[in-house]
Design brief:
The complex is a heterodimer. By secondary structure, chain A is an all-alpha fold. Chain A is built from 7 helices and no strands. Helices cover 75% and strands 0% of the residues of chain A. In chain B, a hairpin with a 2-residue loop joins strand 3 and strand 4. The chains are: A mainly alpha, B mainly alpha.
C-alpha cells in the first residue's frame, strides 16, 4: 500500500480524535473508509470476485454506515454542548503516546508490508482510545469504526487477500454492531436527553 | 449397512420421532411408546455388541469431525440404559397423566435419553461435549417445567452451578486428550511425560466425579434428585451418574491408560468416602427421595472401590484380578441402575398415592399397594445387599477384589485394600440398617395419615414396569456369572473366566447364587405350606397403659438415634427445644432437630464465602463507565502486543 494512503489513514484517525462536531467526525471516518476501500480495490485488480467483494465493502463502510450514523445524529440532537473529558492537547498527546507504544510493540506479522502493519495497530489502538476519551455515544461508535478500519487494513494487506466468506462475515458483524449501537444511541438519548455516556454511570447499583 | 447398524439406526430414528412427537400430538402414549421402542432397539444393538457382535460405526478420533460408534463398553452402557429407560417410560405414562405441561415433560424425557445415548456413542470430542452439556441442561429444564417454586429454583441453581464448575474438568480433560491425539492413540500421551497425564487424570476425576456424585463433589445430587419428576429422578440416578462413570472409565482405563499407582489410591479413597459418607447421611434422612439420592452416592462409591482396586491390581501386574475388579464395578453399575430406578419410580407412585414422601407420614403401604409395595421391598433388599438379589452379587465380588488387594505383596497397597474392604463391609451393614428403617416406616405398621389409609394400588402398566424391574433384581442376582466373562472382556487387559450362572472366582470361594435362590424359594414354599390356614392376628401394642397414638409409633429419628448418638462427633446434630410458657406455666414444647450436611458447612460454605469476597473485590473494577471498560480493553491490547514483542506469547 502506498505511503500516502497509510499516512492519510492515520491522520484521519487522529482527526476523529480531535474534532468537536459529530457530523465532521462522521465525514472523517467515511473518508478513512473510502481511502481504505480504494486501496482494497486497487489491490484486487485482476481478481473479479475479490474486486466485487471489495466494492461491496467500500459501499457499506464508506456510505451505508456513515449514512446510518448521520440519520442517528439527526434524530439525537444535543440540547447543550457535551463537556469534553479532556482538552484537545491532552487528547492528542495521550493518543500519540498510545499509538507509538502500540506501533513499537507490534512484532513482525509476516505480511511483507511493515508500514501497513504499524498503521493497522495504530488505528486499532487509536479507535479504542477514541472510545475512552470521547463522551458522546456517537463518537464512541465512530471510535469502534476506526478500530475496525485498522483490522480491515490488516486484512487487505494479507498477500492474496482473505477468503471473501470471512470478509463478508466480518462486514455482516460490523453492520450488526453499528446498527445495535445506533439503536442504543437513540435509546440513551431518549432516556437521559443526551448522548453523553458518562450519564449512564447513574444506572449502576 | 449391517443388520446391527440398521437396528441402531432404526432405534435412533424412533427415539427422535418420539421426542418431537409431543409437538404435533396431545397423546403422550404414542410418543412414549416410540421412545421406548427406540431406546429398546438401541439397547439391543448395544447388548449384541457387548456379547460379541462386531463393532458398529467409527473408532474414537481426536479431530472435531462428528462421529458415532458402538464398542463393547458403549454397548454395555446402552443396554443398561435401555433396561431401565423402558420401564421408566412405561411408568411415566400414568405418572404424567393429568400433570400440567406433560407434553413438554414427555419431549424433555426423550431429549434426555438422546443426550445420554449421545455421550456414550460419541466418537469425537465435539459430539461428546455437546451431548454432555445437553445431559446436564435437560433434567434442569424438566425440573423447572414441573415445579418452579423458590426451593426448586434454588436446587436447580446449585445443580447447574456445581455440575458446570465440575464440568470444566471434563472440557479440559477431553480437549487436552484430543489436542495430544490420545483419543485415537492412547500411546500419544505417554510421549509427553507423566505430568500431563496426571493433569488430565486430575481434571477427569473432578469433572466426571462431580457428575457421578463422588464425595466431596456430590453436593448437587441430594438437592436435585428429590425435586425432579420421579421418572427423571430415576434416569438421573439410575443412568446419568453412570454415564459420568463411563467417562471416568474411558479416561482412566483407555485414553490416559495405564494410570499411575496414586490414581488407584485416590479412586479407592473417594470410593471409601462416598460409600461410607453416602450411607451414613442416607440413614439420617426423612424424605424418601433425598434418602435414595444419598444412597446413590453410596453406590457410586462402591463402584469407585471396584475401579480403584482394578487400578491397584494392574499396578502389581495381576491382570486377572484387575479384570475381575473391573467387572465387579460394571456389574454394580447395572445392578444399581436397576434397583435405584425401581426405588425412584416406586417413590413416585407412593407420592401420588399417599401425598407425601416423609417417612414419618406414610406407613402401611404394603397392604394397600401390594404390587408396588412388593416391588419396593425387592428393590430395598437388593440395594441393602441381601442375598440372593443383584446388589449382593456385585458387592460380594467387589469385596472379594478388595480382600485380594489386601493380600497383595506391597504393604501400602495391602493396607489400602484392607481399609477398603472394611469400609465396604461397614457400608453394606449400614445399608441394611438404612433400608430396614425405610421398609419398616413406609411399608409396615399402621397408616400415619388419612390420605395413606385411602391409598390405592398403582395402574396396571405402572405395576408391570415395577414388577419387571423387581424381576431384573432377582434375575441379575441369580445369574451374575453369565455376565462376568463379557464384562471382564471390557477390561483394558481382557481376561476370560469360565463361569456358570453363579460366581466362581480363582483363589476364593464361589457364590452359587442360583442355588441360593432355589434354596430360599424352597424354604419360603415350605414355610408357606407349614403355615396352612393360619393368618396373622394383629393385636395392639402395650404402651404402658396409654392410648396408642400415631405419635407413639416408630419414627425415622427414633430408629436411627442409637447410631446418631454413637457418631455424634461426625454428624454434629443440632437440636433446639423451645418451651412456650404463659403466666409461668408450661403450655407446650417445640422440638427441632437437624443434621447439618458437614460438607456444606466445612467445605462448600468457606469456598462460597471466598468467592463472594473475590466478587466484591472484582466489582470495584465494574465502574459502570463505558470509557473505563474501553480502557481495560486498550490495556489488554497493549499488554498482549508487548508480550508478543518480547516473545512471551505467540
Amino acid at each position: 500500500m502506498s505511503p500516502a494512503a497509510i499516512t492519510a489513514l492515520v491522520v484521519l484517525g487522529f482527526a476523529v480524535m480531535l474534532v468537536r462536531r459529530r457530523s465532521l467526525a462522521t465525514l472523517l471516518v467515511s473518508a478513512q473508509a473510502m481511502v481504505l476501500g480504494i486501496a482494497a480495490l486497487s489491490l484486487a485488480r485482476g481478481r473479479p470476485a475479490d474486486f466485487l467483494v471489495a466494492a461491496i465493502i467500500l459501499l457499506v463502510r464508506a456510505v451505508a454506515l456513515p449514512a446510518l450514523l448521520t440519520f442517528t445524529r439527526r434524530r439525537t440532537p444535543e440540547p447543550y454542548l457535551v463537556i469534553p473529558a479532556t482538552t484537545v492537547l491532552v487528547r492528542l498527546v495521550l493518543a500519540a503516546t498510545v499509538v507509538l507504544i502500540a506501533a513499537a510493540s507490534i512484532p513482525p506479522l509476516g505480511l511483507g508490508d511493515r508500514p501497513a502493519e504499524h498503521a493497522a495497530v495504530a488505528l486499532l489502538s487509536l479507535g479504542i482510545a477514541i472510545v475512552i476519551m470521547r463522551r458522546p455515544a456517537l463518537l464512541q461508535v465512530l471510535g469502534i469504526l476506526v478500530a475496525e478500519n485498522g483490522i480491515y487494513l490488516l486484512a487487505i494487506s494479507v498477500p492474496g487477500g482473505l477468503p471473501f466468506v470471512i470478509e463478508l462475515g466480518v462486514l455482516f458483524d460490523l453492520v450488526l454492531v453499528v446498527t445495535v449501537a445506533a439503536a442504543f444511541t437513540h435509546k440513551i438519548h431518549g432516556e437521559v436527553g443526551s448522548g453523553d455516556t458518562d450519564l449512564l454511570r447513574a444506572l449502576r447499583d | 449397512m449391517s443388520v446391527l447398524e440398521s437396528i441402531a439406526l432404526l432405534g435412533a430414528t424412533l427415539l427422535v420421532v418420539g421426542t418431537v412427537f409431543p409437538a404435533i400430538s396431545r397423546n403422550p402414549t404414542v410418543a412414549l411408546t416410540l421412545q421406548a421402542a427406540g431406546i429398546a432397539l438401541i439397547g439391543s444393538g448395544g447388548a449384541l455388541v457387548l456379547f460379541g457382535a462386531p463393532l458398529i460405526g467409527a473408532e474414537f478420533r481426536s479431530s472435531l469431525d462428528p462421529a458415532l460408534g458402538i464398542d463393547g463398553l458403549t454397548g454395555f452402557f446402552l443396554a443398561t440404559l435401555a433396561l431401565v429407560a423402558v420401564p421408566a417410560l412405561i411408568f411415566s405414562r400414568d405418572y404424567l397423566a393429568g400433570v400440567k405441561r406433560s407434553r413438554a415433560l414427555v419431549a424433555l424425557c426423550g431429549l434426555f435419553l438422546i443426550s445420554l445415548v449421545g455421550v456414550v456413542v460419541a466418537r469425537d470430542p465435539s459430539l461428546f461435549l455437546a451431548s454432555w452439556e445437553l445431559m446436564t441442561l435437560v433434567p434442569a429444564t424438566a425440573i423447572l417445567v414441573r415445579r418452579s417454586d423458590a426451593t426448586v429454583r434454588r436446587a436447580v441453581y446449585v445443580y447447574l452451578a456445581v455440575t458446570h464448575l465440575g464440568g470444566v474438568g471434563v472440557w479440559i480433560c477431553v480437549l487436552a486428550l484430543a489436542h495430544y491425539g490420545a483419543l485415537d492413540n492412547p500411546a500419544a500421551l505417554a510421549a509427553h511425560g507423566s505430568a500431563l497425564q496426571a493433569f488430565i487424570i486430575a481434571a477427569a476425576i473432578v469433572g466426571f466425579g462431580t457428575k457421578a456424585g463422588l464425595m466431596p463433589l456430590h453436593s448437587w445430587l441430594p438437592r436435585a434428585h428429590p425435586v425432579a419428576p420421579s421418572h427423571i429422578s430415576a434416569l438421573m440416578s439410575g443412568v446419568m451418574i453412570k454415564v459420568a462413570l463411563y467417562g471416568l472409565i474411558r479416561v482412566l482405563f483407555e485414553w490416559a491408560a495405564p494410570p499411575p499407582l496414586w490414581v488407584g489410591f485416590v479412586i479407592l479413597g473417594l470410593g471409601l468416602l462416598s460409600s461410607l459418607g453416602g450411607v451414613l447421611y442416607a440413614l439420617m434422612q426423612r424424605d424418601l427421595k433425598r434418602l435414595l439420592a444419598f444412597s446413590s452416592i453410596e453406590n457410586v462409591g462402591i463402584v469407585a472401590l471396584g475401579l480403584g482396586a482394578s487400578i491397584l491390581f494392574s499396578s502389581q501386574g495381576d491382570t486377572t484380578w484387575a479384570a475381575i475388579a473391573f467387572a465387579a464395578a460394571l456389574l454394580h453399575i447395572v445392578n444399581h441402575a436397576v434397583f435405584k430406578t425401581l426405588l425412584f419410580l416406586v417413590a413416585g407412585a407412593f407420592e401420588r398415592a399417599a401425598g407425601s414422601l416423609d417417612l414419618d407420614q406414610i406407613g402401611g403401604l404394603l397392604r394397600r399397594m401390594p404390587w408396588t409395595g412388593g416391588a419396593f421391598l425387592v428393590g430395598s433388599m437388593a440395594i441393602a445387599g441381601v442375598p440372593p438379589l443383584n446388589g449382593f452379587a456385585s458387592e460380594w465380588l467387589t469385596l472379594q477384589a478388595l480382600i485380594h488387594v489386601a493380600l497383595g505383596p506391597s504393604l501400602g497397597i495391602g493396607v489400602a485394600g484392607a481399609v477398603g474392604a472394611a469400609a465396604l463391609a461397614a457400608t453394606a451393614a449400614l445399608a441394611v440398617f438404612c433400608f430396614v428403617k425405610v421398609v419398616g416406616l413406609v411399608l409396615l405398621g399402621p397408616a400415619r395419615r388419612v390420605e395413606v389409609e385411602t391409598a390405592v394400588e398403582a395402574p396396571p402398566a405402572t405395576r408391570g414396569a415395577l414388577v419387571f424391574l423387581a424381576g431384573c433384581c432377582v434375575a441379575l442376582g441369580a445369574i451374575p456369572g453369565l455376565l462376568i466373562p463379557s464384562l471382564m472382556e471390557l477390561a483394558p487387559q481382557p481376561r476370560t473366566l469360565a463361569n456358570g450362572p453363579g460366581l466362581a472366582i480363582p483363589g476364593t470361594g464361589s457364590l452359587p447364587s442360583p442355588w441360593l435362590l432355589f434354596g430360599l424359594l424352597a424354604l419360603t414354599g415350605l414355610l408357606w405350606r407349614l403355615r396352612g390356614s393360619k393368618r396373622s392376628a394383629p393385636v395392639p401394642s402395650w404402651a404402658c397403659g396409654q392410648r396408642i397414638e400415631p405419635s407413639l409409633s416408630w419414627r425415622s429419628a427414633g430408629f436411627t438415634k442409637p447410631l446418631r448418638l454413637t457418631l455424634e462427633a461426625v454428624f454434629r446434630p443440632q437440636r433446639e427445644i423451645v418451651a412456650i410458657r404463659e403466666h409461668g406455666q408450661l403450655q407446650s414444647l417445640r422440638y427441632r432437630s437437624e443434621i447439618p450436611h458437614l460438607f456444606d458447612t466445612l467445605l462448600y460454605r468457606p469456598i462460597q464465602r471466598g468467592a463472594l469476597r473475590g466478587a466484591l473485590i472484582a466489582r470495584r473494577l465494574q465502574s459502570g463507565s463505558v470509557r473505563a471498560y474501553a480502557a481495560y480493553l486498550l490495556a489488554l491490547l497493549l499488554a498482549l502486543l508487548v508480550l508478543a514483542r518480547i516473545g512471551a506469547i505467540g
